[in-house]
Amino acid sequence: MNEFEAWLRMEGGAAVIDLSGLLDRSAEAALGEVFGRALAAGSGPILLNFTAVDYINSTGIALIVGALARARTIGRTVRAFGLSEHYREIFTITRLADFMGIFDDETAAVGGTAT
Amino acid sequence: MALLRRRRKPEPSQETATPVGDGVAITVHDEFAMPSAEGNERAVMERVAATAARLGLSGARLERLKTAVAETAMNAIEHGNHCDPDLPLEVQVASTAGSVVVRIADRGGANTMPPAELPDLEAKLAGEQNPRGWGLFLIEKMVDEMRTNSDGVRHIVELVMHREEGR
């Protein structure tokens, strides 16, 4: 398993954050910093790309909750794509899926077409 | 509640089957200990998963067990053993005819699990509840049964995953 990394890029008005590695306590500083830059980059949706994430634990879920809370305070939409079936289930159980759109891939997430 | 009887660590070729309590035969497939260091929960998860896969768990049910094991091990490391690497995290993987049973023990005595506040995402997003506090919730949702007990020194969490969903 790899260390956590997060990279920001812009795609069609959306801020896309490519996540990779372990989404656990070790991800807190990097995710917080990159998410802050995404919040400052325009007013479009923020897309979290989980395609290269190996592992999410309860602390990682808390980090996503914290990021989603930051976005909601300024009315920004957060969407997710690239989740495995297992983590889709966890996002459903925790109700994260009720507050952020879950999409199969980046094209669908940019377009906001629910899957 | 059927408790697993403590035995010496089995050699790979010496897996033990012993009728206990209510007569259910329990076979121990793996026993090991790890230092209570942050991150070791993933090593526990991978080793348990390898044994559980050999016992027939696969797909979504194996993934659920992996998440439950990692969260239980993390609770044991952080709350039971306070990340003291000199305190062992003890793990046992066993099976009955119908289930895979994982026991994870720390040295926290009777009071090692964090308070079982039901996480409320709306409250967390509104800043009315700490964003954390998902661990026990996830464990309970991932496995078919979860039991806890203590022998006064060790706090033991037993995770049960039936080999077939709905049994």
Cα distance, first to last residue of chain A?
A: 29 Å
Low-confidence spans of chain B: 1-14
Give the amount of beta strand of chain A, in percent: 25-35%
CATH class of chain A: Alpha Beta
Helix content of chain A: 40-55%
Residue share in helix of chain B: 25-40%
- Looking at the structure, what is the overall shape of chain B? globular
Largest sheet of chain A: 5 strands, mixed
Number of helices of chain A: 5
User: Secondary-structure element sequence of chain B?
Assistant: EEHHEEHHEE
Helix count from the secondary structure assignment of chain B: 4
How many whole angstroms does the radius of gyration of chain B measure?
Answer: 16 Å
For the termini of chain B, the CA-CA separation is 17 Å
Proportion in β-strands of chain B: 25-35%
Under the CATH scheme, the architecture of chain A is: 2-Layer Sandwich
Q: What's the CATH superfamily of chain A, by name?
A: STAS domain
Content-based structural category of chain A: alpha/beta
Q: Any chance you could write out the topology, listing elements then pairs?
A:
The complex is a heterodimer of chains A (115) and B (167).
Chain A: E1 5-11, E2 14-23, H1 28-40, E3 46-56, H2 58-73, E4 78-81, H3 85-93, H4 96-99, E5 101-103, H5 106-111
Parallel strand pairs in A: 2-3, 3-4, 4-5
Antiparallel strand pairs in A: 1-2
Chain B: E1 16-20, E2 24-35, H1 40-54, H2 59-80, E3 88-95, E4 99-106, H3 121-125, H4 135-142, E5 145-150, E6 155-162
Antiparallel strand pairs in B: 1-2, 2-3, 3-4, 4-6, 5-6
Kindly list the characteristics that best describe this protein.
heterodimer, A: 115 residues, alpha/beta, Transcription Regulator spoIIAA, five-stranded mixed sheet, 5 helices, 5 strands, 42% helix, 30% strand, B: 167 residues, alpha+beta, six-stranded antiparallel sheet, 4 helices, 6 strands
